[in-house]
Amino acid sequence: MKQYQVAVVGATGLVGRKMIQVLEERKFPVEKLRLFASAKSAGTTIVFNGKPVDVDKLTKESFKGIDIALFSAGGAISKEFAPHAVKAGALVIDNSSAFRMEQDVPLVVPEVNPQDILKHKGIIANPNCSTIQMVVALKPLHDRWKIKRIVVSTYQGITGAGKKAVDQLEGELAKRTNVEKKFPHPIAYNVLPQIDVFVDGGYTKEEVKMVNETKKIMGDDSIKVTATCVRVPVTGGHSESVNVEFEKPFSLLEVLDALGKAPGVAIQDDVAKSIYPMPIWSHEKDDVFVGRIRRDETIANGLNFWIVSDNLRKGAATNAVQIAEEWIKQFKI
Ligand SMILES: NC(=O)c1ccc[n+]([C@@H]2O[C@H](COP(=O)([O-])OP(=O)(O)OC[C@H]3O[C@@H](n4cnc5c(N)ncnc54)[C@H](OP(=O)(O)O)[C@@H]3O)[C@@H](O)[C@H]2O)c1
Prior knowledge:
Bound molecules: NADP nicotinamide-adenine-dinucleotide phosphate
Number of strands: 13
CATH topology of the largest domain: Dihydrodipicolinate Reductase, domain 2
Distance between the termini: 10 Å
Strand order of the largest sheet: 3-4-2-1-5-6-7
Largest sheet: 7 strands, mixed
Helix content: 25-40%
Shape: globular
CATH class of the largest domain: Alpha Beta
CATH architecture of the largest domain: 2-Layer Sandwich
Structural class: alpha/beta
Number of domains: 2
CATH superfamily of the largest domain: Dihydrodipicolinate Reductase, domain 2
Number of helices: 8
């Protein structure tokens, strides 16, 4: 089997470190791993397959000989450096939102639209973490009953906002003074109905991402989506309350059957035993957990459910590595 030179950009971050872990766990065919971060991390090492790998400062020349570059250092770094990686011949799989809505950049969740990988011109975008887990659960339902409208409210964990966010929560919980702020308000013992910055119409960028990315990944602009994204003081794991209106009638048994057969979905739904998806059960798992499945009695063909997934895994690192695996499979490279 061919082996690949793989670069991780943002290797010292929450997502970058998880990518390195997932590459190792999934036995990705890595011939050589190169790790890049900012100047302040240069000279540190991260263990991969039992051996320390140096972290180097990212430069425009970092991509010589690289086959696959996994980017997770934020949108500005992706915008500046991804074109250099492509020019050097690498496939870029980008975790930031920099290229997601560009027409010639596929936005891929392998369980949903693996065929879009074929359209790439050097960059494939990894969707927003909240969107990934939602579309994994919705795709099998959309295929059967066609979704008219989605109303989603998220309860997103702290690790979704990077290292600084974790430091703020831990600092506040420990009652440390001089805690550096990632958020505009305290996050310990609090809930923030703001993720990312506000844009037109009173929505946040995260909410707009969920709307636009869902349509692009599902390949269906007719799906109406409205979202409210909320940060909660949970370490990791994003939860979502999802209300869906379908065009066609369904039975709950059929829904359970469709979700039960769907790749990447695990049902946790036994309310008599208080079993439903929770962030603490999702840690270090790749599944999208679905529960609290029930009819919305206020509309025809309405369904309510609750979705939870580990945002650093399926919401970021695992999805990115799965894209690379699918790319190898499709292009037989
Ligand atoms: N967290 C999630 O659940 C999640 C999910 C999906 C997508 N994403 C996206 O993934 C990206 C990273 O998120 P994260 O949570 O891992 O953030 P993070 O923990 O704050 O890590 C940021 C990483 O970027 C690196 N970096 C910063 N400035 C750099 C520079 N000038 N040159 C090279 N590297 C630089 C940092 O290196 P130093 O350590 O040297 O500063 C670090 O490795 C973001 O675009 C985020 O939107 C995150």
